[in-house]
Amino acid sequence: MSEADLFEVEGTLRGVGIRVPEAIKQCSGISLYGRCMKSLVFSTDVAVIRNVDADAVLAVYPFTCQPAITQALLAVSEVPVLTGVGGSLTTGQRAIDLAVHSDMQGVAGVVVNASTDPRTIAGMAERVDVPIVVTATKLDALVHDQIAAGARIVNVAAAKETAYVVEDLRRAYPNLPIMASGGPNDETILATIEAGANAISWTPPSLQELERRVMNRHRQKNDLTFFAA
Which of 25, 90, 111, 140 could form a disulfide with 84 if both were Cys (CB 3.0 to 4.6 A apart)? Predict the structure, then answer.
């Protein structure tokens, strides 16, 4: 049965509030614990996570990883959560300990940033069962070392250069799972997929923007009801 043949069943009140771009469905996907992951929502907002139809959550934020936040995200998410555990603030043994703790909490993957020391990744690989995802902004010697140290998925986040970096990675590693930021529209998403990305991370609109859209729809509906009467 193809996706076009699927029957949709939703609640009256709780439908899908936020849909990821259709273009992401063109991905081949990454099999993560038996689940096909094509789309990842890049968010730590529990309201967004609970109401989006993404296949997984990419929970990376500009602070040191906090187990309480990870637990909250896991509590509300109905899909796998990949959480950041190491970056410019959190390094070395602490990053390894946070990766182990996150693994025990139930995350589907741990994410480290582009500057993470390969020795830290190697230390994580010895102690966690979930895949280590390393973020890359370019293909250089450090990325090669990070992959050799135990990173099993690469997350490309290189702004306008993302598709080019994905292409370089795919050429160097034909069998490596690659996820990447899709950019602002279907054109950039499709270009990234064509370059070799297996999954796309997508940044949703802000809650303020979503609230504005809902209020506009309600205003239009009320206006139509008024004139129909």
Answer: 111
